TrEMBL record:
PROSITE patterns per the UniProt record, alphabetical: RCC1_2, RCC1_3
Keyword Repeat: yes
Protein name: Uncharacterized protein
Keywords from the UniProt entry: Repeat
Residue spans of the RCC repeats: 16-76, 77-125
Origin: domain of life: Eukaryota
Species the sequence originates in: Saponaria officinalis (Common soapwort)
Higher taxonomy: Eukaryota, Viridiplantae, Streptophyta, Embryophyta, Tracheophyta
Length: 199
């Protein structure tokens, strides 16, 4: 499986090894900070795929890459994030995290997607949670400030269980689970996607 961010990529091999490469600013590659020759902390570019050492032995179920952050769900449904936190994409206090940090305030999760400055999760109960920048309403929860912790999306946008979620720079969309009786009443083009919010 693979995830492509704006300037970085993450791949999980069939053997379960997780690698990342590309632009390493903000810790979005998941490699611990290393000292440069001059003694400064650096998160330089990785020009070839490099193993994320802190994920060795972890079975990654799904992975996502955003603008300056990345995230994954492990086999137990735990959500981990790393990278830039300046607009509350994570729900912990530090500005950046160069290695994966677990979010403890989410139910067991199945799917994850990273947008430009927001993150979306589909839980094991098929509910949609979002957090991060609220610019243009991209997290779908109706707040007017940064959503610093995961919030369940409710209201008219999500009336059904959610199957999949995808995010891009300023929007997200999800696929509802359509039960067969309802699917027979709907035309095939109506089954594709519900746009939760879109710029």
């Amino acid at each position: 499986m693979a995830a492509l961010g704006s300037e970085h990529s993450i791949v999980v091999t069939d053997e379960g090894v997780t690698l990342s490469w590309g632009g390493g600013s903000s810790g979005r590659l998941g490699h611990d900070r290393q000292s440069s020759l001059l003694g400064f902390l650096s998160n330089a570019c990785e020009y070839t795929p490099r193993v994320i050492n802190r994920l060795e032995g972890v079975k990654v179920k799904t992975v996502a890459a955003g603008l300056l952050h990345s995230a994954y769900v492990d086999e137990n449904g735990n959500v981990f994030v790393f990278g830039e936190n300046v607009v509350g994409k994570f729900s912990f206090g530090s500005d950046n995290s160069s290695g994966p940090s677990m979010l403890s305030d989410l139910p067991m999760s199945e799917e994850i997607a990273c947008g430009g400055y927001h993150t979306c999760v589909v839980t094991g109960n098929r509910e949609l949670y979002t957090w991060g920048s609220i610019e243009n309403g991209c997290v779908g929860i109706g707040c007017t400030d940064v959503a610093r912790s995961p919030q369940r999306v409710e209201g008219p946008f999500v009336r059904q269980l959610v199957s999949k979620v995808r995010a891009s720079y300023w929007n997200l969309m999800c696929t509802p689970i359509i039960f067969s009786a309802e699917a027979e009443r709907m035309s095939s083009h109506a089954l594709l996607f519900y746009f939760v919010l879109c710029v």
